[in-house]
Amino acid sequence: MTQEEFDALDNNQPSAVQAASSTGSKYQPLSAIKAQGPVRLAAVGLSVVATGIFGGVTFLGADPVQVSAILQGPAQLKSGPGALPKLPQEPPAVAQLPPTRISGVQALQQTQAVADPTPPPTPVAPAELTISDAEIEAQAPVVSVDCDVAATATARAGAIIALKILAPCDAGSRVDIFQGDLQTAFTLDSDGGIDLELPALSAAATVAVVVEDHPPVSLLTEVRDMGDYNRAVLYWQGNLGLEMHAFEDAAAIYGSEAHVSQLKPRDAARALTGNGGYMTILGDADLAQANVALVYTAPAAQAATVSIEAPILAENCGQKVVAGTIFIPADDTTRTQDLMLTLPTCEAEGDYVMLGNLMAFTPSINLASN
């Protein structure tokens, strides 16, 4: 193909060869094509294809179709087997609730009930577990409690007996303590126990502990330093207000340093160091028919004068006094004496009855007399 022929194709014009053919010249297309190089033939092929697509050239005898017409026409979907499923053109209708003004929790709950007519499940309360007292007692382990009264007595310095009592089943009960001729009573604490310090009344002191509805418990205690002290005891029943005073100096007066009484009892350290005596108060005066006791203890070498007095009070005026004294000198020769008298009437309230010269004392302890 000559340049003139290629240009004629490019310009979509009849070539000189075609014109020559029409005038009767014989055209040889195969020889013309063979005469072209590969690059030019490829360019010619592309030109022909482009002309067929965009220029409306028809191949295989089909009618020409313009691309613009294809783009402007409606979309054609394949039908039959293998066709795509049809999608809905519009979303499904949704029920619309009318707008409602809600105020308060109750209104909100009512509105929710209308929107969801299904009632919520009713809560079921757990079944109440009932256990009778008999079942509890039957299931509880049986604990054996020893209700026996236990007591111990231990000798301490100063001729003292440390007494420890435990009655676990008798909390708050009364306990009576017996030692020689002296009986006193106390009240057990909330655990059924009590700790006491008792002045010993003999070198071989026997103490008996009695709790109601229990057999007595007897304890024997050896008091080795009993001979180092003198003791004077005054006891009585009820709220008689009896007093015992010890004067450890000939010039001693009430309230002085050498005066010992239940209002100024001192302590055991004075006797242990040899500097004087002290007084112990025993018993619970609020218990029925219980003795209250005052015990004065002094070193054997301590000179002292002991007096017993009965103040006339509104609580004891005109009453009968039942009392007793116990004197235990250092030589352990115990002496006892009972006291019985009737106090003056209430017109004498505020006065004192002096009780003295009731029995002889060792030189270290004297009883004041009227």
Q: Can you summarize this structure?
A:
The chain contains eight helices and 17 strands. By secondary structure, the chain is of the alpha+beta class.
Q: List low-confidence stretches.
A: 13-27, 56-62, 357-367
Mean pLDDT: 77
Derived structural class: alpha+beta
End-to-end separation:
179 Å
Q: Over all CA atoms, what is the radius of gyration?
A: 66 Å
Count of alpha and pi helical runs: 8
Q: What is the number of independent domains?
A: 3
Secondary-structure element pattern, one letter each: HHHHHHHEEEEEEEEEEHEEEEEEE
Characterize the largest beta sheet: strand count, sense, and whether it forms a barrel: 5 strands, antiparallel
Number of strands: 17
Query: What fraction strand?
Result: 25-35%
Biggest sheet strand order reads 11-12-8-14-15
The residue fraction in helices comes out at 10-25%
Question: What is the 3D form?
Answer: elongated
Biased composition (Polar residues): 10-22
Region (Disordered): 1-22
